[in-house]
Amino acid sequence: xxxxxxxxxxxxxxxxxxxxxxxxxxxxxxxxxxxxxxxxxxxxxxxxxxxxxxxxxxxxxxxxxxxxxxxxxxxxxxxxxxxxxxxxxxxxxxxxxxxxxxxxxxxxxxxxxxxxxxxxxxxxxxxxxxxxxxxxxxxxxxxxxxxxxxxxxxxxxxxxxxxxxxxxxxxxxxxxxxxxxxxxxxxxxxxxxxxxxxxxxxxxxxxxxxxxxxxxxxxxxxxxxxxxxxxxxxxxxxxxxxxxxxxxxxxxxxxxxxxxxxxxxxxxxxxxxxxxxxxxxxxxxxxxxxxxxxxxxxxxxxxxxxxxxxxxxxxxxxxxxxxxxxxxxxxxxxxxxxxxxxxxxxxxxxxxxxxxxxxxxxxxxxxxxxxxxxxxxxxxxxxxxxxxxxxxxxxxxxxxxxxxxxxxxxxxxxxxxxxxxxxxxxxxxxxxxxxxxxxxxxxxxxxxxxxxxxxxxxxxxxxxxxxxxxxxxxxxxxxxxxxxxxxxxxxxxxxx
Amino acid sequence: xxxxxxxxxxxxxxxxxxxxxxxxxxxxxxxxxxxxxxxxxxxxxxxxxxxxxxxxxxxxxxxxxxxxxxxxxxxxxxxxxxxxxxxxxxxxxxxxxxxxxxxxxxxxxxxxxxxxxxxxxxxxxxxxxxxxxxxxxxxxxxxxxxxxxxxxxxxxxxxxxxxxxxxxxxxxxxxxxxxxxxxxxxxxxxxxxxxxxxxxxxxxxxxxxxxxxxxxxxxxxxxxxxxxxxxxxxxxxxxxxxxxxxxxxxxxxxxxxxxxxxxxxxxxxxxxxxxxxxxxxxxxxxxxxxxxxxxxxxxxxxxxxxxxxxxxxxxxxxxxxxxxxxxxxxxxxxxxxxxxxxxxxxxxxxxxxxxxxxxxxxxxxxxxxxxxxxxxxxxxxxxxxxxxxxxxxxxxxxxxxxxxxxxxxxxxxxxxxxxxxxxxxxxxxxxxxxxxxxxxxxxxxxxxxxxxxxxxxxxxxxxxxxxxxxxxxxxxxxxxxxxxxxxxxxxxxxxxxxxxxxxxxxxxxxxxxxxxxxxxxxxxxxxxxxxxxxxxxxxxxxxxxx
Amino acid sequence: xxxxxxxxxxxxxxxxxxxxxxxxxxxxxxxxxxxxxxxxxxxxxxxxxxxxxxxxxxxxxxxxxxxxxxxxxxxxxxxxxxxxxxxxxxxxxxxxxxxxxxxxxxxxxxxxxxxxxxxxxxxxxxxxxxxxxxxxxxxxxxxxxxxxxxxxxxxxxxxxxxxxxxxxxxxxxxxxxxxxxxxxxxxxxxxxxxxxxxxxxxxxxxxxxxxxxxxxxxxxxxxxxxxxxxxxxxxxxxxxxxxxxxxxxxxxxxxxxxxxxxxxxxxxxxxxxxxxxxxxxxxxxxxxxxxxxxxxxxxxxxxxxxxxxxxxxxx
Amino acid sequence: xxxxxxxxxxxxxxxxxxxxxxxxxxxxxxxxxxxxxxxxxxxxxxxxxxxxxxxxxxxxxxxxxxxxxxxxxxxxxxxxxxxxxxxxxxxxxxxxxxxxxxxxxxxxxxxxxxxxxxxxxxxxxxxxxxxxxxxxxxxxxxxxxxxxxxxxxxxxxxxxxxxxxxxxxxxxxxxxxxxxxxxxxxxxxxxxxxxxxxxxxxxxxxxxxxxxxxxxxxxxxxxxxxxxxxxxxxxxxxxxxxxxxxxxxxxxxxxxxxxxxxxxxxxx
Lengths: 496, 546, 315, 268
Prior knowledge:
heterotetramer; B: alpha/beta; Rossmann fold; six-stranded mixed sheet; 20 helices; 20 strands; C: mainly alpha; 13 helices; ABC transporter permease (chain D); transmembrane helix (chain D); cell membrane (chain D)
């Protein structure tokens, strides 16, 4: 239900919440408005910048700069801004500021990450200084999800140019020092609309690109919290009684097919693969056992638009796989399996799949170039089978659309797949306000996915934050939002 | 000269030296005894392997841990054996000094000359740095080093061999030693320089009253400098006596043999038929050669050389190092490119204007100074000879390449057929040079360039190789350019002598005329510098200024 | 004197070589498949082909290759490496901070490696234990790849014994911790250098020891110690210098494995990640720094050679 | 007899690389997730199993084959091209010499890592790619050795003798110079095999080695390192194999040099 937001929670008692020292999984360079630069940058963005709405700890959309919001219908959204909003430098934020930012993000030449959501933008009206009305040319039930995306913060005019630094925002913390390549120091911003509920005096980010170094830093007490705990380190963290491992099922890994050429142009062969992969082995080999096997499409918990049946589409059955292959008339199949040597879980997943495929008589030869060559091959359709990872930035089933539309139109979908049928069902679902009715419509799309297998979800990996038990009030948001939503939790944390 | 009352400086009794080679003990010197009196010069003569240098080094304990030295070494009443290295360190360079054969390698290349001299002085005296430097300058002047001030601040490689030997001598006399050991100090030097160094040593000896132990293989030098002589062979004494006695009346056959092998400057030559054919094999017409210098400037190695070699004639090319004599040979052999003039071989212009043929003439072959270096170490003797024949056959199809032919040629130079399958390193120096000669002959050349073919060999071997070469030359009748620094050698083999100096021909003519009536002052100086194996003659020459 | 002309000439050749390397790498990087925008964006967020095109234009990747090459050379001439795609920051700044880490590693490792090498090399010709150490242990050390040695050190000294931190870099503001974290990487890097230098020093000394001037020195009553220092070691150092330069030149490239093992934010790991997303400005900048370092080391070695061996200086 | 110890060890290693995979009763690629992380000395898996439950001994044996094949092929390639370049440069002199040797210098000043990264990125990790990369890395070394040796040998008198006796260019280069530069070249080759194993396994460690799942020792060390705290043997075992192999081949260099020396050869 696209409901009205209410003012959030009781105010946390003012007091010394300490400074949170955060070991961040990537080196964040300059913030630039619009384009996405990965999970670490999301977390930084969420401290400095703020959009109209945001996610809460349950993944629900709640008001942010907008005091309230209303979906007039799935193509018509009205936001009412809070009083006295301003950026860190004191410059005021009104409806014109919001309009300029959204229009900038709707310009494809800026490379904005949420461009796809705003590509259907029809108009933005600002009847008064506090009201923003966004009109879309097509219904989009997930529009608010996009507005809560870490890349959808409202930015001052100076940041609205490609490549311009974007360090001044409306978020809970402002930049105090940028120690390029080493870390960032943020302090609490008193311009923040909800500053009374922020307990932390500041956040210090230190970059630890290497996973075990990051864990070591936490174990050694150098940092209070780290993101993206390596799967092989889960036990080490758990063994330390002073530490909390906060793991949730997060993004998922899946398999893509090149449906432009034999044998994967045949849905039967794709189904056979769907039955052939031993997901438990993938989880064991690639994620050290820390993940959930997927036998259907991945669902974001707490989103009422999924039907549990969507998670149960194919069972593991080599016999069935062999039978399907026989039915499809393929025998002694030799295919290439594209993966990347840059990430060991990508390679290990492919290795595990290779053994499963061999079991059903398919000889898969690994193609494991570095990341850039991998993406080029993937986007260019230079593969038979490919391993891929997904972290949808919206929670509703609409995400399935991106993973179904084939390349080259979408970099997520199987190369050459025509997803018009699935898209039609999903779009129809998007236009329906009632969750139950929408579920039936989405289910139709999922049934097509079951039979056609445009992409094959394999496993949902555990996504973990880890922190000292002196850190309170933080929670890893479950599901896809672990990547895009958890950053909003830092302002609620405090260090005792 | 020899007063009976003179104090004995060094007395060696029953000196034996063994070397540890792998696990076996090799005896190098056996029960050698000799004395050196004050102001006396004792020369130890012998061929390589006779143990003469080892004897010299043993006196100062310089042989290293593999040598075992026994016997008695008495220096001014102090017995040096067994070595007390603490004591020796005080003795060395102080009371007993030594100079070596190769002054260039005997000095550390990375320190300036003056520095090294100063170091030696300070090592045995209490002088301050400044005083030591002053003393060093004094010494350099004393050994008559030209421009001592400049040389003081130069590195060894910036000085010539003669100059370095003067520095070495300055070092040796720095602490006024009682005994100076001179281990072949002039062997690496040109004759004119050798004469100067010997003069200097004699002068310093009379001034400072030291004794000299002189190690050499050259009987000319012995005759020039020694009061007494000790002849060694295979680590044992052959005979000893005063210089005059030994040269006039040698007691032992070996001594006689050695003396007869020494090529002496034979001014009565002419018994060698001057069978100068009329047709010219090789002609140089104002040939010039420039070598590229390191800094881009050229070094003029040959300048306007005019030279003709006729069929069957042996022409000796004589000069000191750097005179360009070897370059002439290399031009004739086609190894060096000329940049002026013309080279004509067997009627074909090989270099210069009108040259259209290859620089290499099939009619020229060569015998090299260093026989070892001239043989491919990875090829067996037979293969080396066969290869040369095969290459030569490309322009001389009539050449035979059969093993029989090769063995016949080998027999002709006195090599047994058993050497056919040997590698060069398994042959002696003389054998290797015979292989070189065999190779040169085998291709039936019209001209052989022999570049100091015997200078690396011992005198006795030198003589047999030279005799063989002369015999073969007469039999085969090839023309020959015989390059040598040794005028005595030239007088023995050539019919014509060409004297070179700094890239030019200063004088040429029939051997007898050059030796008896040289017209060029340089030729004369060269002739005067050659020490003759005759102490009486040498002494006489010394007293009358050249 | 001539040394200056010589140095100037070497410097000019060095510059030409740096430019050659830049051009080769520029062309090679472009020939290799993979697009920076796709590589960077594909991890997160849905990117449509339109966005990719827009960003390519922003980065100037839509220009034809020759134009970009010229532009790159123009920028390089002004010592500007451009802006990193990945970090939206000047590449020079990123490389600068990483270079410090690598340089620290290289300089410390070279210093300890060379010093230990010369010491053990000299020791080995004088005593039996030293001889055994260098001739038996040396080859073994040389046979252990850095990543094996490093991993083993982490395992033994950090995880089992807990003496030293397993890796990571501490800021220079905490010097004790900073140095503690450098101990293992520097040990890993300097061991093979020490082994190599010890071997070369040993051979060199053995050769020099047989030279005539050493005999001269003894013959003139210099003590064994004085002879060793003045006439053996001093002369033996020339080849040691050459090999040291080679080792030093190879070191900056070799740090990458050690950076990987010990999780150090050095230039090598920067280069690896830059290549994997085709961050061209960073790649070019890092290659520039590494090749210039290599060439500079060689020039310095040549000039140093002139000081050690006067004969070389006059050439 | 001690002189033959190393050749014997090296041959033993080669033998192991050839027949080892036949002797080990396991498929190096066969996964068995249930039996993962079997410890050292398990009855069925002598050296244990890795994170996929693959037999470590079988992987070591298969890896030996790969390491040896790549190292030897790369060395042969590098030797061929390096010697060709070095000898051509030294023999021809003039501008050819300058171009070739400066080219070698430029190659040396390209960071080896970037060379490997780019080639692997372009061609993908595989055995031929690895051989190519390693060969590229080692060509300059051979070129320099061959160049220096040729410069020295071409001025030796036996070469002059060959010129005087009218030897054709080809037989001077192949018959006179080549055999005489072979001793250092062979020593370099043996050292290069050792280095190739070292660098090759290093590339494997960085994931730039051969195409997975084929085992490489470096890759095994890298994988083992991830489980270092819980299963250290996964890293130590392949590490020991890498080290001992490199040790054998680098020491073999001296032996080879000695054997090539005619002074060591008996006359027939």
